[in-house]
Amino acid sequence: MIGLNMGIDFGSSSTIIAAEGKGIVLDEPSVIAVDKETGYPVAYGNDAYTVLGRTDDRIEVVRPIVNGVISDFSMAEKLLRFYIQKICGNMVFKPNVIITVPSGSTNLDRRTFLDVVTSSGAGKVCLIEESLASAIGAGISEKSLSGRMLINMGGGSIDVSVITMGSIAVADTLKIGGLTLDNAISDYLRRTRDILIGPLTAERLKICLGSAIRRKEEIALLASGKSGLDNMPITFEITSNEIFDCISEYVENMIDGIKSVIEKTPPELIGDISDNGIILTGGTSLLFGMNKLIEMITGIRTEITKDPLYNTVNGVLDITKDLDLLQEGYNFQTIHQLN
Length: 339
Prior knowledge:
The protein is of the alpha+beta class. The chain contains 10 helices and 18 strands.
């Protein structure tokens, strides 16, 4: 095909883009800062993320992807157009884009993704489920007859799939992810201590102190926020046990969703999964003890891929190098060709 082949992982928390022959060329947050009065974007990606929680009422920082699907068409189109233009510059031919979508996305969700990408400057677009792209990135052969369970744990959603012979046998998308845990931490501090913190601080507390299982040795961290009593700056200490207690309910919801997919999986495939183990990918899989918790609950060996943050886009990159990896039904289309 004429034009640059690109792969895009357009997620709730970050946008990662790879280009054929260049590798990963962009990794920035999926946020855009907009002037409320004019509706004009004032910052994209990293720049917009830097002002998150630091802006006045005139500037709104928007996440156009919520729970893995597009919630704000206009902002998603503006953000993706900026990224594609940043990579392609003044290329004569429009790029051919392979973009990942949640396995549980509806046909309307898929149409929206296709429309957004074509409106953003792509010539032709191919949609592929996150789980299939992650499986290719993890080195799982599309010709393998043995079933594998792959769990893509992102910022806005968790994609749970059982893959066999290069196709998805059972799948579900959970509307919960790393951003849910960030919000839980912010709500906990506001509710119990009357302390207000921004999204960047909440994410840092999750990364440094968060865990899926209670740590054997408690650790603590000093953080800054604003007192809800007098609106003055405040420095406070918070422990790993506190963070565990406030996010454990949501981690349990994640586990329940994973168990639900296992319960719907045919017995023969369950046998394969028991032999092959469960594969975790995505940023939320790095939460301390997540793989151990899933292994303890399911009784199935659970491992995190070598490159969980970029596993999905690496799979898409492999496809751009060898388009024969795309099976029947995964064809480049325009918006008018989607059934």
